[in-house]
Write a structure and sequence with these properties.
9-stranded mixed sheet; single chain; binds pyridoxal-5'-phosphate
Length: 421
């Protein structure tokens, strides 16, 4: 019987929920979207203005389905508050100079075993969120005019950073199942100079794709042979719905060419602005760049996250958190299948905080976004996830919500509004 459960779980038909047993996963979901067309050359990025306009327009809506951040109700707010109070009592007033608080780097080193990495505290640099880590990584490996290979679609935040640094992107087709196309990347590496590859091997934003360990190793090996660094964004690695936490691509790095970036934003406290990186052979350069830009990450926030991670409650919190987000993803997938226009496709991620919805091509996600805002609902239009207008008919929805009938009604309304378009 247990073998049968194991097999059904492997096929994604049932899921184990901690201390509750096995549950059938929602079945009404639609086929996976297909990767879109391939560009032949690098593209300048000019989406920042639009991105900022969309983000400001959706600030404080009644129902937030736009941001890939967890709702406060899903986070250990009280315990983190206690950790912060303990940090304040210890007088966390001074700078915590790069590479950042030793106690936090020790906790991260201990936890890196779960990502298959076995890193030492000295390999980490604490940053102001993953955003600073990604910016430092990009600046450490490239300069204005350089080309960065990215998944397509990719996280709009990194597109903003790339644009602000005057870099260009080469989009690599990406499957919602297993991520970046290695054959396309290989051809691109042969054809042109690429300064770095930015990828989210674990539960990419927005596709939710997850690369197998074999494909992660192949990615790291391919880039090593071409002497191209990999900037790995693993912010969603801890938000896995089934089975153990997946390995990081960094775990296959033998030459220090992978700049691993992550943060506490997806599972603990986005507002604490605590992130980290393991920049491999670029460590000294990253530290110099950090001194020159922000000097240091906030000391009380570093201490609080270190304090929280050193207790056993993080793992307990993660189990509950993963079950909540996974349940949301199932419910939302089923609701989208019921309420959205015919021939809508939605991803079925195995982790992360977002669903990617491909609507019929006639639907303009910018118009849908404006319509939804009029009803107090924020969604993220697909237009922001590429420098080219190839995802106009797509939207990204957050499944990091605290489920309620209000959310359920709002999502059904998004579907009805899309039908009207
Ligand atoms: C894929 C990805 N990387 C990085 C970030 C930024 O994270 P942080 O809040 O730690 O700066 C986000 C936030 O939405 C994200 O989704």
């Amino acid at each position: 019987v247990f073998q049968a459960y194991g097999e059904l779980e492997r096929q994604g038909l049932i899921e184990a929920r901690p201390q509750s047993g096995f549950f059938v996963r929602a079945r009404q979901q639609l086929p996976e979207p297909l990767p879109d067309a391939v560009p032949q050359s690098a593209t300048p990025v000019t989406t920042q203005e639009l991105t900022l306009a969309i983000i400001s327009a959706g600030r404080r809506p009644a129902v937030a389905l736009d941001a890939a951040t967890p709702a406060a109700a899903l986070l250990p707010t009280v315990q983190l508050g206690r950790s912060l109070a303990r940090a304040a009592r210890r007088g966390a007033i001074g700078y915590e100079h790069p590479p950042g608080r030793a106690s936090l780097r020790r906790e991260l080193a201990r936890r890196s075993v779960n990502w298959g990495c076995h890193l030492t505290p000295d390999e980490f640099v604490i940053t102001t969120g993953a955003t600073e880590a990604l910016g430092l990584a990009l600046r450490a490996v490239g300069r204005a005019g350089d080309t960065i290979a990215v998944e397509s679609p990719t996280y709009y935040g990194v597109l903003q950073t790339i644009e602000s640094l005057g870099m260009r992107v080469l989009e690599i087709p990406t499957s919602a199942q297993d991520g970046l196309s290695l054959s396309h990347l290989e051809r691109a590496l042969q054809r042109q100079r690429i300064a770095a590859c930015f990828a989210m091997p674990n539960f990419a934003n927005p596709l939710g794709s997850a690369m197998s360990d074999e494909r992660k190793q192949a990615l790291v090996d391919l880039l090593r042979r071409a002497h191209v660094p990999l900037i790995e964004d693993d912010v969603a690695g801890d938000v896995c719905f089934l089975g153990p936490r997946p390995r990081a691509a960094k775990s296959f790095d033998t030459r220090g060419l992978v700049l691993y970036c992550s943060s506490a934003s997806k599972t603990l406290a986005p507002g604490f602005r605590v992130g980290w990186m393991a920049p491999g052979r670029f460590r000294e350069r990253v530290i110099a760049l950090q001194w020159a830009s922000t000097i240091a990450t906030s000391t009380p926030a570093q201490l609080a996250i270190a304090d929280y991670l050193s207790s056993a409650i993080y793992d307990r919190h993660l189990r509950r958190f993963r079950a909540a987000v996974s349940g949301n993803a199932d419910r939302m997938g089923a609701l989208i299948a019921r309420e959205f226009p015919d021939s809508t496709a939605v991803t079925r991620p195995r982790g992360g905080l977002v669903l990617w919805v491909e609507l019929p091509r006639r639907i303009d996600s910018m118009k849908l976004h404006a319509l939804c805002l009029r009803h107090g609902i924020a969604i993220m239009p697909g237009t922001l996830f590429s420098p080219r207008p190839i995802y106009r008919h797509c939207i990204r929805l957050s499944c990091g919500v605290a489920w309620s009938t209000e959310i359920e009604r709002a999502l059904a309304l998004v579907g009805q509004l899309a039908r009207r378009l």
